[in-house]
Backbone:
């Protein structure tokens, strides 16, 4: 169904008397945005303020339109028919005296709401037209033609607190003070070293000898080295005693500690 | 450089202005900065964004007042768009710009009406739009408006089904040269006439029924879009 | 379009103003027009093109002179680009056109130690720093401190090789809230304040290898930087 078909048919079939009315109707239904839109178009033909519209008249106009559409074998969408049925109901309500037993809104209330809906739709149409009639961006006024983009730059900021700084400095400067905690290999004479040394010498220690004489050469000058060597030698001596290879004695507190080979087993 | 370095601190210092290490630049200089930033941008920029890019202690809002005055009557204006600001050519000079005009997509009548209803009735649900227009709103229509970024989702309505609402965007305001949705033409009159109220439909009045678009939309899952 | 055609005649008309059919708009108005057109243009526009779009009898070149003067010292300038004209943000405000995201990182241990030694011993040569730290100082570490502007070159030491020295900068003092590097607390005070770590790392290999940069720097010729 096209516009042309519809209008040809209408022109052919309508009587002169109907023509004026038909002019408002000679539009294919697809042109309407639903029954409310059609009603609004019909209402305009009454050429009165929408507030003073005769809803009864409007219902009759609409029903006539639907009749005509049927005659013309125009297939109407379901919602146009629903509206037609409702308007027929409204028409009867408006024409007949109110039934006191019937509940629900009166014909007048329903008519008033329909009028309100039409007026509101009309108002929105006007508002839309006003809106589109405004100056528009890109048509009447313009944005910057050559926008300069804002560069996104990532910047790394390194931070340090005064505390970090001072702690770092303290760390560096106090390294030496903690020497005892550090195994300083060249000043340490280990027990293993002392034991090796003494095992080789013990065979010759037939008589009591101060363990100081077992210290390696050159370890008695530096006090740190002397202490380390003495301790290692003493520990090694105890180990030899435990193994049953030597005997230790000390005549009194702080007196020299003496060591000799243990002869018992050989005896 | 150093001011740059201080920027993150500047925000913190805003709360305690006494601690400010740097003197804010003179207002004339701040005005220049705002001018440059707005000139460079094609989209509206909020005063908050402006201030974030300015040195510590600047007052973008005040600079904007001065700048707006400076551009009064010029070929380019400083306009307010919602919470943001933009430079735009004076509308009376549009005739010179034919060359810059970009053919905007023709909006359908349904789209224009839907847009107007959203603008005037916002926040508005899809059902309310349908009630006003008397037909169902096709998904395509709303999609188009969403895609143009003239319309966005608003808060859900706290009614059964928690329907989503639609509101107009800043870029809608920008496009139509509106400072604010309250500046819509004829808004006060429409409100006074009671035409922006949503009046409940009396029982028995016909509902807007589905049109073809709507049926299609249902098939293609409009519920995803509108109902959750 | 037609104005374009008319242009030669317009010039002719200048000589015989009586023949002009239309009064050209006042110069202030012409300036507005040029302003709007240049603002909206997507590329620089020649004065000929501007004039072609303006009403009959306009003098774009003169309007440009006025406009250029108007924007002098503003946040936006009118600049000449070859034969054409464009609006550009003032070069001194370029810093506003970058949005920086700042990421804060801790200084590396090598950097903070080097910095500490420079602060406590300044002016100090690289060799001295290495002696105190017990490991070589990588070029990257010193470069970083120089770049951060926390450290700068001091006077050369009047010893053989005339080595360069390092000193801390004003911005170092600023950052650490010091008036003077001499205000840094001494070792005794640090200890009293409990700032000494109770257990330093054992000296030797682990630290040296931690300073990986150093090895690399040695290979890549740190001598260039420090020995001339």
Residues:
């Amino acid at each position: 169904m096209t516009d042309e078909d519809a209008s040809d048919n209408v022109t052919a079939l309508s009587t002169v008397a109907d023509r004026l009315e038909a002019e408002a109707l000679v539009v294919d239904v697809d042109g309407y945005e639903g029954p409310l839109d059609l009603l609004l178009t019909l209402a305009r033909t009454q050429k009165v303020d929408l507030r003073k519209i005769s809803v009864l008249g409007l219902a009759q106009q609409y029903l006539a339109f639907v009749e005509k559409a049927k005659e013309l074998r125009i297939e109407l969408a379901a919602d146009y028919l629903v509206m037609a049925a409702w308007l027929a109901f409204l028409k009867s309500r408006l024409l007949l005296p109110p039934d006191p037993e019937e509940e629900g809104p009166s014909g007048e209330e329903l008519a008033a709401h329909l009028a309100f809906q039409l007026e509101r739709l009309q108002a929105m149409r006007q508002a839309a037209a006003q809106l589109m009639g405004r100056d528009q961006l890109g048509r009447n006024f313009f944005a910057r033609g050559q926008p300069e983009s804002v560069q996104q730059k990532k910047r790394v900021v390194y931070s340090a607190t005064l505390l970090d700084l001072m702690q770092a400095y303290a760390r560096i400067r106090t390294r030496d003070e903690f020497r005892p905690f550090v195994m300083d290999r060249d000043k340490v004479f280990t027990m293993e070293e002392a034991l090796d040394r003494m095992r080789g010498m013990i065979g010759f220690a037939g008589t009591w000898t101060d363990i100081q004489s077992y210290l390696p050469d050159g370890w008695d000058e530096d006090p740190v080295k002397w202490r380390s060597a003495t301790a290692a030698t003493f520990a090694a001596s105890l180990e030899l005693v435990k193994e049953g290879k030597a005997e230790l004695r000390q005549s009194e507190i702080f007196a020299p500690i003496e060591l000799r080979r243990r002869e018992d087993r050989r005896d | 450089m150093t001011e740059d370095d201080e920027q993150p601190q500047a925000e913190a210092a805003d709360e305690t202005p006494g601690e400010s290490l740097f003197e804010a630049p003179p207002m004339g200089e701040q005005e220049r900065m705002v001018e440059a930033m707005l000139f460079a941008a094609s989209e509206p920029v909020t005063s908050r964004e402006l201030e974030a890019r300015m040195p510590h202690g600047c007052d973008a809002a005040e600079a904007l007042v001065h700048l707006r005055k400076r551009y009064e009557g010029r070929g380019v204006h400083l306009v307010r768009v919602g919470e943001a600001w933009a430079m735009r050519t004076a509308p009376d000079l549009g005739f010179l710009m034919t060359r810059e005009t970009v053919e905007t997509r023709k909006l359908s009548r349904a789209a224009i009406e839907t847009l107007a209803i959203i603008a005037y009735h916002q926040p508005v649900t899809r059902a309310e739009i349908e009630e006003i227009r008397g037909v169902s709103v096709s998904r395509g229509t709303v999609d188009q408006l969403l895609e143009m970024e003239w319309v966005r989702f608003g808060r859900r309505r706290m009614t059964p089904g928690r329907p989503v609402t639609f509101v107009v965007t800043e870029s809608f305001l920008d496009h139509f040269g509106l400072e604010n949705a309250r500046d819509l033409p004829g808004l006060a009159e429409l409100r006074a006439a009671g035409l922006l109220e949503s009046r409940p439909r009396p029982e028995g009045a016909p509902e807007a029924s589905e049109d073809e678009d709507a049926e299609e939309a249902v098939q293609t899952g409009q519920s995803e879009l509108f109902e959750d």
About this structure: Chain A touches chain C at residues 142-146, 148-175, 178, 181-182 (CB under 8 Å). The longest helix of chain A spans residues 107-132. Chain A has a mean pLDDT of 77. Strands of chain A lie at 151-159, 209-210, 246-250, 257-261.
